[in-house]
Amino acid sequence: MRRALGLAAFAAALTPVLGAAFGYNSGAQKPGGVKNRLDYENEFRAAKALEGAPAGGFTSVRLFTMLQDENAGNNPIEAIPAAIATNMRLLLGLWASAGSAKFDRELEALVTAVNRYGDAFTRLVDGISIGSEDLYRNSDAVEEGSNPGANPQVIVGYIQKVRQRLSSTKLKAPIGHVDTWTAWVNGSNAAVVGACDWIGMDAYPYWQSTALPNNAIEQSPRLFQDALDKTRAASQGRPVWITETGHPVSGRTWGQSVASVENAKRYWHEVGCPRFGREPIWWYKFQGDQAGDQPNFGITPPGQLTSKPLFDISCKPPGSSSPVPIPVSTGRPGAGGPPTASSSSASTSSGARNSPRSDVSSPPSVTTTNSAILLSGTISATSSTATNSPMLLNGTVSATSSSPATNTNGAVLTAGSIGGVWAALLAVVFAV
Ligand SMILES: *[C@@H]1O[C@H](CO)[C@@H](O)[C@H](O)[C@H]1NC(C)=O
Ligand SMILES: *[C@@H]1O[C@H](CO)[C@@H](O)[C@H](O)[C@H]1NC(C)=O
Which residues, if any, are the signal sequence (predicted)? Predict the structure, then answer.
């Protein structure tokens, strides 16, 4: 037995790349209501069996809220028991743009979940995001009153509050915040960076209609890398996790970026494949929405759940016809990367320990929960993987993120008066 473990550890040490979290964003809503435990279980099973996916399927899911019912009670989101039942890892999210009373309910729901489910839950947590795009929505770029966010001081206060509240519990997961890359590069938000163990970047070249020379699909790899580089430069040494990115399979053209299955496939292969398994990433998104002319980012169609993607998602090396296997992580997120699939044998798993912090980070994406959702009280989501705090302190933690609730209304999206990237981002928020 001892020898077997030793060999496993040795093999792990030789593995060049740790399995970083390979996840997707999951909102709390479904057409006509909020998802319940069965909905989440069915979704997680389908996502884990995604045909042709690196590592065999998604292994982590990003949530946007801890509350099952935004309007009443502190019941934890039912994605948690569903994740336990399906061994899905979690990048938890606490909604932070609806005032402190609502935030306190998010926190109580999290503590309730820890007490109720114990280690079966905490071992699955890749990270905890305090908020989602609150700084983006707080910026001048977003129309006043149309889309409430939260200012940096508020987010820093929430982060401190969560750290203190969780310190007496068994949940030891890295705490961060998710925002658009444009919010991270804004120096006025530096205090939030300083309060985080990791920072989550949302980036969507599709929405960057003012990018130069343009945002046509062939510019996407460069635009994404640029957003990631700038976010890392502003990260004060924190790991950067890619918490949202993707390209729509259908919907209107934005700037010069065309929404199509062909372009979504190209984006997956050119932006996603080089990073899957190497950097923590939560794709936007697994199942599509009935979106009308709004962009639909799903790699599987709306309606009946399926594990069959709309295009070939197997990652192949250049000039080869064989898919590249992605290591499935089996340990806690290590220094290098966020979450990985299974859990506890932290020591063997991740090469993360040997990775520079910079390897941990990854690109952005725009997440969104839209205020519409908020207003309607439908946001939800959660979870994270835990890496232990010591790792965090050393800057080695990795993990992942969260995402906003899916929203059902696309109607409001239009940000006609806003303009440029911001408009695009805003639109995303709404659209999603
Ligand atoms: C930069 O961040 C501050 C604080 O969040 C915000 O008030 C301001 O509008 C942001 N600037 C831009 C250009 O978005
Ligand atoms: C990790 O962090 C702990 C706590 O801050 C510190 O004592 C230890 O020296 C750090 N280890 C490394 C390798 O930085």
Answer: 1-19
